[in-house]
Design brief:
Layout: E1 15-16, E2 27-34, E3 42-48, E4 51-55, E5 60-68, E6 71-75, E7 81-83, E8 88-91, E9 97-101, E10 105-113
Antiparallel strand pairs: 1-2, 2-3, 3-10, 4-9, 5-8, 5-10, 6-7, 6-9
Length: about 120
């Protein structure tokens, strides 16, 4: 049995994720943990290259901590905010959001999908 210890900076087990607007690639994810129940909570690392990532309102809640990089973040009709290492962002179910990644970016996210 191996102890489940992870380093957020490790670029192992990354799989392609959402592309940046106008490109075919741009972000990658690495699942860390997933609840065993169907549609359970997910913890993952998300790594992204500079670009724009727009999310429609989704049927889930997400909270993430920025570990590396800077971005301009906006949510619904709220004004954009610059975020960087140490910033914690919470996105409620159904709320659209947008990330304009300014420099190589990495976050640790907890996602709670629809039950």
């Amino acid at each position: 049995m191996t102890m489940p210890i992870y380093n957020i900076a490790d670029d192992i087990d990354l799989t392609p994720a959402m592309p940046a607007e106008g490109r075919e690639s741009g972000s990658y994810r690495r699942p860390i943990w997933q609840d065993e129940i169907e549609n359970g909570t997910i913890v993952a690392v998300w790594k992204a290259e500079p670009g724009i990532y727009t999310y429609p309102g989704r049927d889930l809640e997400e909270t993430f901590v920025v570990v590396e990089g800077e971005a301009i973040y906006s949510q619904a009709e709220e004004p954009p905010v610059k975020i960087g290492p140490g910033t914690i962002v919470s996105i409620a179910k159904g709320v659209p959001s947008r990330l304009e990644i300014l420099s190589p970016f990495r976050k640790l996210a907890t996602v709670v999908p629809k039950p």
